[in-house]
Design goal:
single chain; 264 residues; mainly beta; Immunoglobulin-like; 2 domains; eight-stranded antiparallel β-sheet; five-stranded mixed β-sheet; 20 strands; globular
């Protein structure tokens, strides 16, 4: 019987061990400045990090990633794989460039708290794309699979002073990507028109008061992800979404307006 309990304990310990890991996410800081964060699902003291990697997908074109910060004094090695290069391998649809980020093997001692993000890198995007999406390539994407894991996300660490293993555990929900269109919203001139949003903050409903025709309203979170959209109405129900700060994009017959709103 003692051996049976030992066996069960070993299984449970193994399951618990494998549940430990890190998720990656994109955080929009301001304008075209972003951070990639890692979010652990466990507390740890003095973990030994070997190397980390992931691939950022960007709209094909002139946009570049510059001013990449260090991670605890260690440099990242970026490599761009263009949409044309991917197409030459019969990968992708020709609309996305890949920026492969790798921190070469070394040693970083780090402590962290469960569910508290820490920054892996901060960077700027050049040439200011106004359309398309920046996203972290998933390991199940055909591009990643077609390149045999060469652009996979990974987080190699020795978290229990035994062996170094890959503890990458997917992407943070809601932080997998960022839409550049939310950075190019332009307000129309209000010389002969008026527009207000009330109540703000709101608990249940956002209302738009204006003498313009409202064609569409779209609500974006602070990460640039579209949360809600409604057509041909001046009201939007928000009592079912998370409390926080949002951007309301209002399309009218005279152009676009944006308003910062708070949902409580």
């Amino acid at each position: 019987m003692k051996h049976f309990y030992t066996f069960i304990f070993t299984i449970l310990f193994s399951i618990t061990g494998f549940s430990q890991g890190y998720q990656f996410g994109i955080v929009h800081n301001a304008d075209y400045n972003f951070s990639i964060v890692a979010v652990p699902d466990f507390d740890a003291t003095n973990t030994d990090i070997s190397d980390i990697g992931f691939a950022l997908m960007m709209p094909a074109g002139d946009a570049d990633i510059i001013n990449i910060s260090e991670f605890n004094g260690r440099l990242w090695t970026p490599n761009q794989v263009t949409a044309a290069q991917l197409s030459s391998f019969n990968l992708g649809d020709g609309t996305r460039d890949a920026f492969v980020m790798n921190m070469p093997p070394g040693q970083t001692i780090l402590s962290h708290t469960a569910n508290t993000p820490f920054i892996l890198m901060t960077f700027d995007v050049t040439n200011m794309p106004t359309t398309g999406v920046m996203e972290i390539l998933t390991n199940t994407d055909p591009i990643a699979m077609g390149l045999a894991g060469a652009v996979d996300s990974f987080y190699n660490s020795n978290i229990d002073q035994t062996t170094t293993q890959d503890y990458f555990n997917g992407l943070v929900s809601g932080q997998e990507d960022f839409m550049f269109s939310t950075l190019s919203l332009e307000n129309i001139e209000l010389d002969n028109y008026s527009l207000s949003v009330y109540p703000n903050p709101s608990i249940e409903m956002l209302n738009v008061s204006t003498n313009l025709n409202v064609i569409k309203m779209e609500l974006y979170d602070i990460l640039g992800k579209q949360v809600l959209t409604v057509n041909d109405t001046k009201t939007m129900t928000v009592n079912h979404i998370n409390a926080g700060n949002y951007i309301l994009k209002i399309e009218t017959n005279k152009g676009f307006m944006t308003k910062k709103v708070i949902v409580e």
